[in-house]
Amino acid sequence: MQEFERAGVDDGGVIDPAAIGRGLEVLIDVEISATDLKTVQEFETTVAGYDEVIEFRRMFGRPDYFVRVAVADAATYEDFVSGKLIGLPGVLRTESHLTMKRIKAD
């Protein structure tokens, strides 16, 4: 970890996404149409396993899920959404929110 800190990649235990080629952060609201437990569990397991996903929450109300991803650029994000997210069984709708500026993080 000290090497990462000296290189400017790690800031006190938090990896800087831009330093590892993932400078674009996107918050995604996901609504699903699935109500059966098997599909819901498969959706959660699959999304949680994606490298791009840095935070993943199931919500009360709408949206059903909140997903935070870190990717290299807009083209990589489009590949993630088109190639991984919207093709999953049960996904009804996604809405993307691009981060303009991170003001506070854990």
TrEMBL record:
Residues 30-101 form the Transcription regulator AsnC/Lrp ligand binding domain. One of its GO terms (molecular function) is sequence-specific DNA binding. InterPro entries: Dimeric_a/b-barrel, Tscrpt_reg_AsnC/Lrp_C. One of its GO terms (biological process) is response to amino acid. SUPFAM superfamilies: Dimeric alpha+beta barrel. It comes from the Bacteria. Pfam families: AsnC_trans_reg (PF01037). One of its GO terms (cellular component) is cytosol. This is AsnC-like helix-turn-helix protein. It comes from Kribbella caucasensis.
